[in-house]
Specification:
This protein has a five-stranded parallel sheet with strand order 2-1-3-4-5, sandwiched between helices. The chain has five helices and five strands; from the N terminus they run βαβαβαβαβα. The protein has helices at 21-35, 72-80, 97-104, 127-139, 168-191; strands at residues 6-12, 38-44, 83-89, 114-121, 143-152. The two termini are 18 Å apart. α1 (21-35) links the parallel β1 (6-12) and β2 (38-44).
């Protein structure tokens, strides 16, 4: 990465029919581009080949398993990213299965990366999912930032065209999280060994 630009991958975690994730992701991507410190790439897991059956290997022995061709865009995006933001709803008080499959197919891609979260849902606004994902990413040697963006009762917060009724609070939260992502991603990138191409 250059001294001033952080490569940010924004992952849309939900793959359900009728999902609201792309609306939230579009809003967040606009916030990230306003920051001007990020080169943003969106990865929609609904467009990725995510087989449930993982390869029968140990990540400690073979950390980079052969992956389906349809997964390579995700792998490349993670290889190149300095930071990742997961846009996730709560599903049964946790996160969507698709994002866990995406995580479990990748091991080295998370190490030394900075991770942020944008959540949406009912009363919790995605905080159940975010809390569980923190545990998973910490196990994979990633650094999760403290700032988050959440949309409790998101269906009351956005217009039909995806515009927030009152953007002031979420925009402030997004700026805080983006500053944290940037502050951690720059030094961590300098410490990571260069990733081999997927």
């Amino acid at each position: 990465m250059s001294s001033s630009t952080v490569k940010l991958a924004v992952i849309i975690a939900s793959v359900r029919e009728g999902r609201f994730g792309p609306v939230v992701a579009d809003w967040f991507v606009e916030q990230a581009r306003r920051h001007e410190g990020f080169a943003v790439r969106v990865v929609d897991l609904a467009e990725v080949d995510l087989p449930l059956a993982l390869p029968a290997i140990s990540p400690m022995i073979e950390p980079d398993p052969p992956r389906p061709q349809g997964m390579l865009p995700l792998t490349r995006a993670l290889d190149e990213a300095d930071a990742v933001v997961v846009v996730t709803p709560d599903i049964n008080r946790s996160y969507p299965a698709a994002v866990k499959v995406a995580i479990d197919w990748h091991f080295t891609q998370w190490s030394g990366k900075t991770i942020g979260f944008v959540g949406y849902g009912g009363k919790s606004g995605g905080l159940y999912a975010i809390g569980h994902l923190r545990q998973v990413f910490n196990e994979l040697d990633a650094h999760t930032v403290g700032g988050v963006v959440t949309f409790p009762r998101y269906f009351e917060l956005f217009d039909a065209d995806g515009t927030l009724h009152d953007p002031s609070g979420p925009e402030t939260a997004a700026r805080t999280m983006l500053e944290q992502l940037y502050r951690w991603a720059v030094p961590l990138a300098a410490l990571r060994p260069a990733a081999e191409p997927a």
